Please model this.
Amino acid sequence: MTTIEYLAQSAVPLLFVVVPAIGAFVRTLHSPSRQAALETWQRWWAIGALGCSSLWMTLAFLGAPDVMSTAIGFTRTPFEFEIAFANLGLAIMGFRAASASARERITIGLGAGMFLWGAAAGHLYQWFANGDHAPGNTGGVVITDLLIPAVLIILARRAQRLSTAEPATPALV
Model:
């Protein structure tokens, strides 16, 4: 594998954080308020970063397990079937987070974090302990595993703080 091919394969997971970030940025350029902008960012991140990336991983592990084994530097095991359905759970949580409250989004971010941060630790362990430098084990996947739940939690926490800091708009009678 050439360096360019390796970098390209390693960078694919980053699309699932770059595209939602660009989409949210463009969508909020003329946002009417900070709360509206923050809500837009949370929805783009929940659907694009967590939901779509997890659905992609589900389909990849179910549809092309041999390719995924090669990408992560392992031989094919039944564990990949389990990873597919764990990712399906994350996808459902990501899509649910699009219309959730800030408190629910924090919980969803923490739930996703338990899986993804554990996966990141596993990737790093395999990288340093066993020299696994496969493109699906290092690079973009480690970054997204760390960022996706962290950003979801941070955005939800900011929304929580903003909703308590800004005075409620009085109802028009």
